[in-house]
Write a structure and sequence with these properties.
alpha/beta, Rossmann fold, DNA polymerase, domain 1, 2 domains, seven-stranded mixed sheet, 7 strands, 14% strand, damaged DNA binding, single-stranded DNA binding, nuclease, RuvA_2-like
Length: 247
C-alpha cells in the first residue's frame, strides 16, 4: 500500500474549500488500478492524505463519506460489453456510503463506442432512475478531481462544522532523544489503518504514551493534527475487538 502526503498548492476551483481553517484534511483512497495521472492531479491539493489500494466498490473513497466510480469512454464501453458495468452499478447502489458516477470525456467521444444513442441513454437512465446513482460529467482528469471534491463539499455541507483543517507540518517530537522505545511505539501505531509514521508521532507528541492514546476518548483523538474520524473509528474497533478461543 502506498501513502502520499500532500503539502502543495490547490487548484483555484477548490481553493476556498480547502483553505478554510474549519476544514479537516481529507483522506482519499484511490483504487490501485487507476492511472497515475489521477494521483498526480490530487497531489496538487494540500491537506489531502491519499492512499492507493484495491477498492471493492468504486474507484475513489473520499473521507469514508463518498464513493466515486470514474468511467472514461473506453472503460464505459468495455464494462458494458463484458458485463461489469451493471455489476458495478449494483454494488454502488447497495453501498452504505453515498456514491456517484463520473463520466469523463467529451460527449462526442461517447458517440463512437459502437452503441446507438438510444442504447446509451437507456443505460444511463437505468443508472440514475433504477439504481438511483447520480451521474456527473467531466471533460478531463483534472475536472474529475475538482468535481469529486465539489461533490464531497456538497454532500457534507451540513457537517462542515465538524471538519478541521491544518497545514501538514512535520511534528517536533520533544522526546526523540530521550525515549529509547520511540521506534517501537511508532511501529505499534503504524499497525492501525490510516496511521503512518507522521501520524504516530503526532499522537505520541500529544498524549505522551500508548496507554493514553488507547484510552483517549474520540473527541481528544480528533483534536490531533492528521487524525480523522474514520481513522479513530477503525482504531477503536481494533482495540475493542474480543477474540474467544474455542473451549
Amino acid at each position: 500500500m502506498y501513502i502520499y502526503r500532500v503539502i502543495v498548492t490547490t487548484f483555484d476551483i477548490m481553493k476556498d474549500f480547502l483553505s478554510g481553517s474549519k476544514f479537516y484534511p481529507l483522506e482519499i483512497v484511490i483504487d490501485d488500478r487507476e492511472p497515475d495521472a489521477m494521483l498526480e492531479y490530487l497531489l496538487f491539493y494540500k491537506n489531502i492524505i491519499v492512499r492507493k489500494e484495491r477498492l471493492l466498490v468504486g474507484d475513489y473513497l473520499i473521507d469514508s463519506e463518498l464513493i466515486v466510480e470514474r468511467k472514461t469512454p473506453s472503460d464505459f464501453s468495455a464494462s458494458i460489453k463484458d458485463g461489469r458495468f451493471f455489476k458495478q452499478a449494483g454494488k454502488l447502489a447497495i453501498s452504505k456510503v453515498p456514491a456517484c458516477l463520473i463520466l469523463e470525456g467529451r460527449k462526442r467521444e461517447y458517440k463512437n463506442l459502437g452503441f446507438s444513442k438510444n442504447a446509451v441513454q437507456a443505460i444511463l437512465m437505468s443508472v440514475s432512475l433504477i439504481f438511483k446513482i447520480p451521474i456527473l460529467r467531466a471533460k478531463t482528469q483534472k475536472d474529475t478531481v475538482s468535481i469529486m471534491l465539489q461533490s464531497f463539499k456538497q454532500l457534507t455541507k451540513d457537517k462542515l462544522a465538524d471538519y478541521k483543517f491544518h497545514p501538514r507540518l512535520k511534528p517536533k517530537f520533544k522526546s526523540q532523544r530521550t525515549d529509547k522505545y520511540l521506534k517501537q511505539k511508532i511501529h505499534i501505531l503504524e499497525g492501525f489503518p490510516g496511521i503512518g509514521a507522521d501520524r504516530a508521532e503526532y499522537l505520541l507528541n500529544h498524549f505522551g504514551s500508548l496507554q493514553h492514546i488507547f484510552n483517549a476518548p474520540e473527541s481528544d483523538l480528533l483534536s490531533v493534527i492528521g487524525i480523522g474520524k474514520s481513522t479513530v473509528q477503525k482504531m477503536k474497533v481494533i482495540l475493542n475487538k474480543v477474540n474467544f478461543n474455542d473451549a
